[in-house]
Amino acid sequence: MTEMNKPNLAQDLLRIHMIITRGLDVSIENAEGFEAEGFPNRQLRGGYRDYVTALLSFVSAHHLSEDEVAFPHFEERLPEVPFERLQEEHERIEEMLEQAGAQLKGLDETLEPSLGGLKAELREIRDMWHPHISIEEEHFNVELLAEMVPVEEHVRISAEMGKLSIEHAEPTYLVVPFALYNLPADERGTLIRNMPPKVIDELVPVVWKEKWAPMK
Questions:
Q1: How far is CA 116 from CA 38, 54, 123, 152, 197, in A?
Q2: 20 to 30 A Cα–Cα from 101, which one of 80, 112, 117, 199?
Q3: How far is CA 170 from CA 52, 58, 61, 173, in A?
Q4: Can you give the C-alpha Rg of the chain in angstroms?
Q5: How many C-beta atoms surround the C-beta of residue 175 within 10 A?
C-alpha cells in the first residue's frame, strides 16, 4: 500500500469539508435564484428544503464527531492546536444552524417562503466556515498525521467519527445521498468504499431514491 493510499484521518476531514463547502455554496446560490424568481413548482421547493435540511444536519453531526472523538484524542498529542477556539466556533455555528433551521420552516408549503432570512443565515455560516476549516486543515494535515499516527489508529478514529455522525445526521435517506453527490466522482468512490454495500447497492439507488431524488 502506497502512502497516498493509506488511510489518513486528515484526508477524511478534507473530504467532509469539501461536502459542506459545496453544500453551502449550492444552498446560497439557489436561495438567491429562488428569491429573485420564485419557486417554479412545489416539488422543487420541497427538494430545496430537503437539500438544506441535509446540509444543516450534516454540519452539526460532523462537528459533534470532532468534539467528542477527534479533538479529545489529539489534545495532548497536538498541544499547539487551538482546540478551545475550534470548539467555541462549533458552538457559534451550531447556533447559526438552529437559526437557519427556523428560517427553513418558512419553506413549508403552507407558509410564505423566508428565503431572505435563510440566505442571510447561510452566508453567516459560510463566512465563519472558511477560516474555521483553514485552522483545522493547517493543523490536521495529511503529512503530519501520517507521520505521527499508525494506520490502524486512523481507521479506528475515522470509524468512530463516522458512526457518531451517522447516528446524529438525520434523516439518513437524505443525508447519505447529500454526502455522496456533493463530492466529485473520485472522492465519491473513496467514500463509497467506507460504506456498507447494502447502502450503496440497495438503499440509495432503490429504497431511498424517491425520497432524495427531488434534491437534485
A1: 12, 19, 11, 47, 40
A2: 199
A3: 12, 8, 9, 8
A4: 18
A5: 22
3-state secondary structure of 208: coil
| Angstrom distance (rounded) from CA 172 to CA 54 | 9
Q: How confident is the model at residue 1 (pLDDT cuts 50, 70, 90)?
A: very low
**For residues 174 and 57, what is the distance between their CA atoms, to the nearest angstrom?**
10
Q: Give the pLDDT score at 208.
A: 95
State what percent of residues in the chain have pLDDT above 90: 70
Q: How is residue 212 written as a grid cell?
A: 432524495
Question: Locate cell 455554496: which residue?
Answer: 25
This prediction has a pTM of 0.93
**Spatial distance between the Cα atoms of 119 and 130, rounded to a whole number of angstroms:** 17
The sign of the torsion formed by the CA atoms of 30, 32, 33, 37 equals positive
- The Cα–Cα gap between 98 and 102 comes to 6
Nearest to 141 by CA among 17, 1, 40, 49: 17
Do 93 and 61 meet the contact criterion of CB atoms below 8 Å apart? no
The answer to whether the CB of 97 falls within 8 A of the CB of 60 is: yes
CB-based contacts of 98, cutoff 8 Å, min separation 6: none
> In which band, very low, low, confident or very high, does the pLDDT at 94 lie, cut at 50, 70 and 90?
very high
What is the identity of the amino acid at 51? Y
**CA 54 vs CA 4, 14, 124, 151, 210: distances in Å:** 30, 19, 18, 31, 15
User: What kind and span of H or E run contains 63?
Assistant: helix 42-65
